[in-house]
Amino acid sequence: xxxxxxxxxxxxxxxxxxxxxxxxxxxxxxxxxxxxxxxxxxxxxxxxxxxxxxxxxxxxxxxxxxxxxxxxxxxxxxxxxxxxxxxxxxxxxxxxxxxxxxxxxxxxxxxxxxxxxxxxxxxxxxxxxxxxxxxxxxxxxxxxxxxxxxxxxxxxxxxxxxxxxxxxxxxxxxxxxxxxxxxxxxxxxxxxx
Length: 193
Known about the structure:
Blueprint: E1 2-5, E2 12-15, E3 18-21, E4 24-27, H1 32-37, E5 46-52, E6 57-63, E7 71-77, E8 80-86, E9 97-102, E10 108-112, E11 116-122, E12 126-132, E13 141-143, H2 165-168, H3 173-180
Antiparallel strand pairs: 1-2, 2-10, 3-4, 5-12, 6-11, 6-13, 7-10, 7-12, 8-9, 8-11
């Protein structure tokens, strides 16, 4: 298992160890001790699974503190462009975004720290699994605009964009930044590899 830093403080791409032979493969998508050895101390408490048609954009979702949620996501079918925005004022990468293509072929897992908004675009019909460091809380559930002009995410949209009415109506980061940062976030900083 290998961890690589991304341009966002505390966010990582993880290459899992696959064991393959003539029958197929075996992989442990999550092992607490192995992730602890990589410096990821989160205890994931919820698993989620989503399906999206080609052209679906979901995001940019997060939860307010004290229910802020870290995530570990992987694409198990299809191909997605996964994006995070660093909303943590005390982070050296505050207001920056990063996107990465996830697919079963590249076998990457994206670790997203609490304090980052998360969304994705389905390049193909796709399924994703999420491990969450906090239980979903409707009271703390929130999002920022997927097209916030101050952030400037460049999405690889091809053809018709499918987005929920709810995701079209979210506020900008500037409108919620004080509430997002009501308490400081722990920040891990490693150089981009």
